[in-house]
Design brief:
- GO terms for molecular function: hydrolase activity.
- With 229 residues, the chain is of the alpha/beta class.
- It has 2 domains: 3-15 and 107-227, HAD superfamily/HAD-like (Rossmann fold, 3-Layer(aba) Sandwich); 19-104.
- It is built from 10 helices and 8 strands.
- It has helices at residues 19-31, 39-44, 65-82, 87-96, 113-122, 137-143, 156-159, 166-175, 189-197, 224-227, and strands at residues 3-7, 14-15, 108-109, 126-131, 150-155, 181-186, 202-206, 217-218.
- The protein has a 6-stranded parallel sheet with strand order 5-4-1-6-7-8, with helices on both faces.
- Helix 3 (65-82) packs across helix 4.
- The longest helix is centred in the first third of the chain and has 18 residues, at 65-82.
- It is elongated and about 60 Å long.
């Protein structure tokens, strides 16, 4: 019997806090070292339009990497413009942000990530990442050395649906022939736990406050080994 564990990535296996704000600020400072616009300004500026902000829609028109990034560049450009940069400059900087979001070195694995993935692989489970993320997430996962324990990486950007949309879960389940023993593990009650539950999967909430008293919860990944036995 095939045994599958779907893992969220950011906030579950690794973290890169304020990744978009940091990237936009880095591009600005590289071009304008004397700029008085600090990173806090970027953190305080809403970036609206990322697919995961409206999971009820389909994004099949953005499943090619270049199309996804063109869409994202429009968001970055609007952010720069809202902070007072001229249109032409904002457009230029918006195109430069992408390169700063593809570096695996900017993501930090939690200290229990590798040991937990190894534990379940040794127990006969197949570890698969299922995450709302950018198109190049599989490459980032490879850079972090997770490929030794993770057999596949499914990024929403390459699928066209965002968790908790049932379609992304059905996509993943269908790809692996609807396994009987299957779990979703992540840090979001809505995207990971409730999204999984809506399609008949069991979901485990990790690294978040269990304010809704979900059935399966662990403050870290080590606790997951006590839930899935």
């Amino acid at each position: 019997m095939k045994k599958i564990l779907f893992w969220d990535f950011q906030g579950t296996l690794a973290h890169n806090d304020w990744m978009f704000s940091k990237a936009l600020h880095t591009v600005l400072i590289n071009n304008e070292p004397d700029s008085k616009i600090g990173i806090d300004k970027f953190k305080a500026t809403p970036m609206i339009g990322f697919p995961w902000q409206d999971h009820k829609r389909d994004y099949l028109h953005l499943t090619k990497s270049e199309d996804w990034w063109k869409h994202a560049e429009e968001i970055f450009t609007k952010c720069y413009s809202s902070l007072g940069l001229q249109k032409e400059v904002a457009l230029q900087y918006g195109k430069e942000v992408r390169a700063y979001l593809l570096k695996g070195e900017d993501f930090i694995l939690y200290d229990d990530t590798l040991e937990t993935l190894k534990y379940f692989k040794d127990k006969g489970y197949e570890n698969i990442i299922l995450s709302n993320h950018i198109p190049e997430l599989p490459e980032i996962v490879g850079q972090l050395g997770l490929s030794l324990y993770v057999s596949d990486c499914l990024s929403s950007a390459n699928i066209g649906y965002e968790k908790p949309n049932p379609k992304i879960f059905h996509y993943a389940l269908e790809k692996y022939n609807y396994p009987e023993d299957v779990w979703m593990i992540g840090d979001s009650i809505t995207a990971d736990v409730m999204g999984a539950k809506a399609v008949g999967m069991k979901g485990i909430l990790v690294r978040a406050d269990n304010t809704d008293s979900v059935e399966y919860y662990s403050k870290d990944l080590r606790g997951v080994t006590k839930i899935i036995t």
